[in-house]
Amino acid sequence: MLSHCSQAELELLDGDWQLTRRDDQIPPPGAWRVWMLLGGRGAGKTRAGAEWVRELALGEMAGTGRIALLGESFAEVRNIMVEGISGILAVHGNEERPVWKPSLNRLEWHNGCVAHAFSADDPESLRGPQFSAAWVDELAKWPRADHSWDMLQFALRLGDNPRQVVTTTPRAVPIIKRLLGEDGVVVSRATTYDNEANLAPTFLKSIVSRYEGTHLGRQELMGELLDDRAGALWNRAALEQLRVESRPELVRVVVAIDPPASSGENADACGIVVAGVTVNGTGYVLEDASVQQASPSKWAHHAVAAFHRHEADRVVAEVNQGGEMVAAVLRQVEPDLPLKMVHARRGKWLRAEPVAALYEQGRVHHLGTFGALEDEMCLFGIDGLPGGKSPDRLDALVWALSELCLSAQKEPGLRAL
Length: 417
Prior knowledge:
Elements: H1 7-14, H2 17-20, E1 34-39, H3 45-58, E2 66-71, H4 74-82, H5 88-91, E3 99-101, E4 106-108, E5 114-119, E6 133-137, H6 145-155, E7 163-168, H7 174-180, E8 185-190, H8 201-211, H9 215-220, H10 236-241, E9 243-244, E10 252-258, E11 271-277, E12 283-288, H11 296-309, E13 314-318, H12 324-333, E14 339-344, H13 348-360, E15 364-367, H14 371-379, H15 392-405, E16 414-416
Parallel strand pairs: 1-7, 1-8, 2-5, 2-6, 6-7, 9-15, 10-13, 12-15, 13-14
Antiparallel strand pairs: 3-4, 4-5, 10-11, 11-12, 14-16
Helix pairs in contact: 11-12, 13-15
């Protein structure tokens, strides 16, 4: 049949979502409350969410539908869910496309259906409005996920069967674990490979080949929900309890650097973590500014930029790899940079243990969510990270909090140069 179709007919068929969607992108049957699409990067989650909204707005909710669009931030909602290449506007034909009113954070269909955009970092904005459906994107990385999710549930009170679709790359955070155990939640799963035909070959070659088979690859490509590692020094549930939303008055701020031993495509990341401490000795992790595949000049510029951005008073750099080169590279960028070079004489596990103890005592907080850093923390065991990967971000974190919250004189594993 296809061999007898014209080019125009083939393009029409290719654009027909009913024909081209995969089974995992089809809304499941039955009276479900939450449909969770757990998938790897580029697996087609956004397209499935946008098409679900389109079907509701032009079908059963035409005229009276009220839909909530909830992402990590307004920018994420607009750039991905609404205006993105697989977003709501893109999946509509010209004659049926809704009008996006960014000043009102609202989509309006010609038939009267309306969708309102909300940011997960402002859960209180969900008090008052009411909806019959919602599309929630990347729930696993929201900084205030539980509170924002709960506020959305109170707002879903229109119609006989309020429903919501969640599109996210899975992470073993409390909200995802919680939903997977609730009644009325159905799950679809997809991998990056399932959507290979719609992905750039260079993406598959560079990203997939680099991370295939690794822990990060299983999560980000295969869409697997990977729990905390048994015996790790940190766990995600505990980190969630230590998360804060505002920065207190800090008496010191440092930028810690764990430089890579080499540069280029296969080099380790340069760990760059910014942390501060209050007058009572409580530490706050402010930013993970780590960079991947960076030349010495590039990571030095990133570190110095973080130093100025946070008005830090010192840069702490490990010199096990690079020695005097580390200081020379940094001072080429900023000649008068306050710099402390440290040398590790104990293994990573022994150096990390006293920092992990600070977390157990509630003496360290995270200002927001640092996904890649926290993944390293919750996967770091006595034998390091799975697959032998270097814990670059974690190393920088340990140096920063050791400088701020632990006495160098009492910690024989730290030696200032």
